[in-house]
Amino acid sequence: FRFLIIITLLFNFNEALNENFDSFTAALSNGWVVVDNSINAASYTSSNWRQGTSTFTAYSGAANSYALVSFSSGGSTSRWLITPTLLVNSLSSFSFYTKGYCDAGFPERLLVKLSLIDSTNVGNAPNSTGDFSTTLLTIYGSNYPCSWTKYEISLSSLITTETTIRIGLWYNGNPSNELYNVGIDDFQVTNSLTNSPSSTPTVSDSSTISDSFTPTISDSSTPTVSDSSTPTISTSSTPTISISNSLSKTRTKTISLTKSKSKSNTKSPSVSSSVSRSASSSVSRSASSSVSRS
Question: Which of 186, 211, 229, 263 has CA atoms 20 to 30 A from the CA of 272?
């Protein structure tokens, strides 16, 4: 008998990107890109995407280990934080934590955009998006969380085969009546290593049974009779039975098992947020590195 059993089907996953923003400078060195298409962008560079400050306390790690962005005065704010090049497939997903300043008079807006090619082109105008034409998520107004909140997005409906992409976080709005401060922390992209089984344990059983039974019977009998006063009968009978029974069985069984698994942990939050609109360690609305609304 021969048979084949497939025991299980497994996929391996890995982290294509895991950015905690412990150092914003290091993040830029690792491929993150900042683009500012705001009106008066040159006058307000210090409020563009940057290392976190005391405006918020980071979701994880050191108090300032997050990315922070603020509004730009004098016109539309259009500030992009773009991921490094990402190699993804149909099982890829990503997640991040964010929180807003939550001033009722200035609702926050953040759009999560996708470029289906390896591009940092977002155009040159405040409302242009360039190659980032696909909107994956919009967080705006009362929907913007005031405490660190995790957002998870699957790419399965957009990606059908392995390809390179970039993801853009777009802080966009009119600072006269919206936008203040937004933080981003723990940005993670998770991929499946392959769409085929990484481990296919197989059990095969090959058995051959043969049974041979060949009985042989021979009977030789030659009686002799002579007619005299004393008849004599002699009988020679020598029956012979020969039985040959040969039974052989051969069994071969092979089990091969390979399993690999990786696991990542999410850090426990430590959240504290206390901000005022003043020219202190947080970003306020002034025409310098911190901006005040006058």
Answer: 263
